[in-house]
Amino acid sequence: MLKINSDENLGKVTIEKSALQNALSHVAEYGNFRLPRRKWKEVYGLLIGKLKNNNLIVNNAFPMTHGSSIFVEFEKEHYILAAEINEIIAENGDFFVGWYHSHPGLGFFLSGTDVLTQLGFQDVNPHAIAIVFDHKELERENETFTIFRLHNTSEGILSNYYVVDYELNGLENESELEFIEKIYYKITHSLETKKIRKVESTARNNIEKWLKLED
Ligand SMILES: [Zn+2]
Questions:
Q1: Where are the beta strands (DSSP E) in the chain?
Q2: Average pLDDT over residues 116-135
Q3: Which pTM does this prediction carry?
Q4: What residues sit around ligand 1, an ion, with C-beta below 5 angstroms?
């Protein structure tokens, strides 16, 4: 079902290092290898960016919430928070260009619920993307995430999806895998399992600093 299909009409996708770092830290915190697998949790966040000459640039990622090992839900408070962030980022010409969530140990795909969520983004912005993380793939030295878009939103929840190609921007002398492993192991080795930091609030502080820098 999955096919690499870089839709030329939609240009390229570029992910800034800071966006990947924030999202992956969130994923790693709740999918910590030191925790038993049954304790891993799905996380959900928003992607912030802009369109430049028909190309999508993901500048940052904003951790929103986490759920159970197989499910994460967006609640009323998150919509309110998202609306507030939206106002701030709009001042810099940024907007929500998609979302990310994790499938810890479950692999890369969009569930029916995920397709529904992606419809919400892609209906208003054909460039919008969904990033799915599965950090378990790191053990096999595989990619830890895959980017998806729906083929045809007019088909609604029956719409098929495809894999979107991307470039990662901001890495210096390290490979993408080295960069990802570094973030991942820093988090999983600095934590005591009984004291999981609130990565959502930490990452939010980082974003707040970043937003101020852009002023
Ligand atoms: Zn999912």
A1: 13-16, 43-52, 55-66, 95-102, 129-133, 145-150, 161-163, 167-169
A2: 93
A3: 0.83
A4: 111, 114
Q: How many other β-carbons are positioned within 10 Å of the β-carbon of residue 64? A: 25
Q: Separation of 82 CA from ligand 1 center, angstroms?
A: 19
Question: Rounded CA gap, 195 and 25, in Å?
Answer: 16
When pLDDT is cut at 50, 70 and 90, the band that residue 40 belongs to is confident
Better-predicted residue by pLDDT, 83 or 190: 83
d(CA 70, ligand 1 centre) in Å: 8
Ligand 1 center from residue 130 Cα (angstroms) = 10
Pick 199 or 123 by higher pLDDT. Answer: 123
Distance 171 CA to ligand 1 centre (A): 28
Sheet holding 129-133, edge to edge: 161-163, 145-150, 129-133, 95-102, 43-52, 55-66, 13-16, 167-169
For residue 100, the CA-to-ligand 1 centroid distance in Å is: 9
Query: 202 pLDDT exceeds 70?
Result: no
- Cα(187) to centroid of ligand 1, in Å? 23
Complete domains list, the chain, with CATH: 8-214 (3.40.140.10)
Strands 13-16 and 43-52: unpaired
Question: Ligand 1 mean position to 114 CA, how many Å?
Answer: 5
Which run of H or E residues covers position 208?
Answer: helix 199-214
User: Which pLDDT band, with edges at 50, 70 and 90, does 194 fall under?
Assistant: very low
CA of 215 to the centre of ligand 1 (A): 35
